Amino acid sequence: MLEVKNLTFKVDENGVERSIVQDISFTVEDGEMLVITGPNGGGKSSLAKVLIGIEKADAGQIVLDGEDITEYDIDHRANAGVGFAFQQPPRFKGMTVERLLSLAAGKPLAECDCCELLSGVGLCANEYLKREIDGTLSGGEMKRLEIATVLAKPHKLCVFDEPEAGIDLWSFSMLVDQFEKIHSKKDQKLILISHQEKIIKMADRIMVIEDGKIRSIGSKEEMVPKLFGESSDCKCAGRK
């Protein structure tokens, strides 16, 4: 289980302290998918960065499967089983896609394994394995490669920050299939930050964050009618 207790994160803006994440508490059970949504600028991505260790919390506690990881940096959290896909993936000039996937997996990957990972995010292995992670790749290509790196290794907790950003419709459908496969195995805790209706409706639970606070949280059955004005088993629930 992931336990987030009274998490607070503040920034200094021109000498004025402002809370970006304010006293947030929630849990994610083993095998559960929690989708976090809400208005832009509400603190969703900042919460994700605190969870994976890019930013340090000013108060609160993060416990993963009984292990207090609050003081861990990003490397130690990765070793503890936390995976993360950035909203804006970094580029690594001189490193090939094949090498990046092997590093993400923590071991050399066979070409067939790399091919499977790339196919899962809508990329052709023959076109990408030897390409460098540099400025020649589009934002959408970078996003898909970033998600493939997370899928390259099992994690206790995976956090995906707006996986739909910069993705074409065909690739998006393939990503949804990947998330459904991961979720069906029930061996990883999943947090997806998204505005996309189809992803939101995949959730076990949905949390709405606004102004750095949890405005509402509940099961899909409870939250979908509030968010979309329809029942979760509506025939049009799969529409985008």
Task: Describe the protein.
Keywords: ATP-binding, Nucleotide-binding. InterPro entries: AAA+_ATPase, ABC_transporter-like_ATP-bd, ABC_transporter-like_CS, Molybdenum_import_ModC, P-loop_NTPase. Pfam families: ABC_tran (PF00005). It contains nine helices and twelve strands. With 240 residues, the chain is an alpha/beta fold. The protein has a domain at 2-90 and 155-228: P-loop containing nucleotide triphosphate hydrolases (Rossmann fold), CATH 3.40.50.300. The chain has a six-stranded mixed sheet. The chain has a four-stranded antiparallel sheet with strand order 2-1-4-5. A two-stranded antiparallel sheet has the order 7-8. Helix 3 runs parallel beside helix 6 (139-151). The radius of gyration is 18 Å and the shape is globular. The two termini are 31 Å apart.
How would you summarize the topology of this molecule?
Layout: E1 2-13, E2 16-28, E3 33-37, H1 44-52, E4 59-64, E5 67-68, H2 74-79, E6 82-85, E7 92-96, H3 97-105, H4 111-120, H5 125-128, E8 132-133, H6 139-151, E9 157-161, H7 169-185, E10 189-193, H8 197-200, E11 205-210, E12 213-219, H9 220-228
Helix pairs in contact: 3-6
Organism: Dorea phocaeensis
GO molecular function: ATP binding; ATP hydrolysis activity
InterPro entries: AAA+_ATPase, ABC_transporter-like_ATP-bd, ABC_transporter-like_CS, Molybdenum_import_ModC, P-loop_NTPase
